[in-house]
Amino acid sequence: MQNRSPHIAALIVAAGRGTRAGGAIPKQYQSLGGMPLLARTVGVFAAHEKVASVTVVIGAEDDALAEAALPEGVARVVGAESRAGSVEAGLAALPEEASHVLIHDGARPLVSKALISRVIQALEDADGAAPALAVTDALWRAEGARVTGVQPRDGVWRAQTPQGFALAPIRAAHEAFQGEAADDVEVALAAGIEVALVPGEERNLKVTHPEDFARAERLLKEDQMDIRVGNGFDVHRFGPGDHVVLCGVQVPHGRGLQGHSDADVGMHAVTDAIYGALAEGDIGQHFPPSDPQWKGAASEIFLKHAVGLAGERGFALGNVDLTLICERPKIGPQAQAMRVEMARIIGCDLGRVSVKATTSERLGFTGREEGIAAMATVVLVPK
Ligand code: MG
Fold it and tell me: Are the C-beta atoms of 346 and 274 separated by less than 8 Å?
């Protein structure tokens, strides 16, 4: 490894005409789930924290389409007749600081962040790395409609992209390469570059035919249906004090709530519900009570962390419903302020945050006014 951290450039190849997909415009500019297919592909790389730049190779006639489809900050370069020629043009146009390149088919919009990470990781030990899938169907040779033989599938893999390389060797390989190549691994192998194989993904399909659009749309819809529900429950006991903090709001009271942090029982229940929806444990795991830095901490820190974690995992808050259980203090007059405060911390509309309260009819520990309990339900939706 070099001393400096690598600059990983993404090179998205989208110069083809995509005629097999049908339609009035090239397939990479056709809409997939409400946005141009190419914009979706570019977006995955642009959002990856280890990808420093994104360059797209476009067709000579597609400048206006690309301008409309691509976000600002994405460099464009005009490709050539052949795929290898287009890649060579793209390699020449990468930022000067680039040390590695991920070459990706523009028509594979469902590439995942995890797959990109696997290729980047493999490049730490090799000058080339690319994803592939094992072949499970039997393979035949045929002439016309007549099967003439069986092709052994041992050691045969279905190639995908992104195909990653150290930049200098793949540039040299492309300069030396003559003729037409199926992909950049073929070019790399011709130059003697070692290519590590990493696991590909079935959903990283190449949108080629009209039915591929339908399949990609179905996969995107499935993603949209990944709805998460979580519940949270918390109790804090009363102790000496002159106020309690509930959902970030100071409420005057003859006693305070005891706890390691500010003992905001309502916000803790909501925070735990979010962790629960993500299957990410609970507050105690993320902010151990044994750690003195959380002593007296405002519970806003916990809720912000949970919301941030949800965001990283691709989720936004659908809604939260919190019930505080106590005889006193009276919650009703403060419930609106509590909603406002939690909506601010979460960064969502007020209409998605509910705070309500009930007594327990003087029964049990809440009825005896020994403490306050809170229960919360949250729904997380794909962003
Ligand atoms: Mg608590």
Answer: no
User: How close is the Cα of 349 to the center of ligand 1, in Å?
Assistant: 25
CA trace torsion 158, 161, 167, 173 (10° rounding): 40
User: How far, in Å, is the centroid of ligand 1 from the Cα of 362?
Assistant: 22
Three-class DSSP category at 1: coil
Measured between alpha carbons, how far is 43 from 54 in angstroms, rounded to an integer? 9
**pTM score, whole prediction:** 0.70
Q: How far does CA 250 lie from the centroid of its chain?
A: 37
Question: What's the pLDDT tens digit per position in 305-332?
Answer: 999 999 988 899 999 999 999 999 999 9
Q: Which helix (H) or strand (E) holds 293?
A: none
Separation CA 329–CA 5 (nearest Å) = 56
Bridge partners of 375?
233, 323
Residue 263 CA, ligand 1 centroid: distance in Å: 6
3-state secondary structure at position 336: helix
Structure tokens at 216: 């990609």
Q: From the CB of residue 259, how many other CB atoms can be counted at a distance below 10 Å?
A: 20
CA-to-CA dists, residue 288 to 186, 239, 258, 284, angstroms: 52, 22, 16, 5
Q: Quick one: 304 exposed, middle or buried, by C-beta within 10 A (0-12, 13-18, 19+)?
A: middle
Dist. CA 259 → ligand 1 center (Å) = 7
Tens-place pLDDT, residues 74-84: 999 999 988 99
The CA 226 to ligand 1 mean position distance, Å, reads: 28
Q: Do the beta carbons of residue 154 and residue 135 sit within 8 Å? A: no
Angle at 109 (CA atoms; ends 65, 114), nearest 5 degrees: 140
149 beta partners:
141
- How far away, in angstroms, is 231 Cα from ligand 1 center? 14
Ligand 1 mean position to 182 CA, how many Å? 58
Q: 195 C-alpha to center of ligand 1: Å? A: 51
User: Two tokens at 307?
Assistant: 């919301």
Separation of 260 CA from ligand 1 center, angstroms?
8
Residues 7-32 have pLDDT tens digits of 999 999 999 876 666 677 899 999 99
CB atoms within 10 A of CB 171: 17
- Half-sphere exposure at residue 283, Cβ-oriented, CA atoms within 13 angstroms: 26
